[in-house]
Each structure stands twice: as C-alpha cells, then as structure tokens.
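Ticket #4471: structure output looks truncated?

Reporter: J.K.
Steps to reproduce: submitted the chain below (96 residues) through the standard prediction queue, then opened the result file.
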Amino acid sequence: MLRLPQTLMHPQAQACLQDLQAGAATSASPIVVDASALTAFDSSALAVLLELRRNTALLGKDLHLQGLPERLKVLASVYGVQDLISDTPSSIGLAP
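Returned output as attached by the reporter:
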C-alpha cells in the first residue's frame, strides 16, 4: 500500500509523485493509495493523484484511493474531477 504524506502542497508535489510512481511500478495491481494522513494540501494534491492515475493506467494497473479527506473531495468537485479521485473505484478510462 502506498501512502500520501501529511502535507502535500506545491513544494512537495514533484517528490511525492516520483515516490508514488516508483511504488506503483513495483506493486501488483490494484495499486492502493491511503490518503488518511493527508491534512494539509492544495490543488497540487489533485494534480499528483490525477497524474498517478494516468501513470498507473499506462502500466495497465488499477488504482484505488482510500481515506480521502472530505475537503479534498470538495476541491475535486470544484475542479470537476471528483469521479477520477473517488474512494470508490470507477470504470472511467483514461486515454494514454
């Protein structure tokens, strides 16, 4: 299981994404990401999760997110990407 850090803002985004992508590359499908520790974040957290979803799709692996903070779900709704970061796996496909 991969885990998001407590803080995921713009300064941490690139390093976090690299860590998650490395973990996803060596993990079996489905990739599970636990976001329950995430307490301080900005829209960069969404960007990281969306890029990770794209990357795992390119690897032919499913991505499951769990423990998403309610505020992150609201932010995703504002940006119109709530279906892409839902706690519930969806059948939404992403074109490579």
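Triage note (M.O.): checked the attachment and the full token line is present. Strands lie at 2-3, 7-8, 31-34, 40-41, 63-66.
Status: closed, working as intended.
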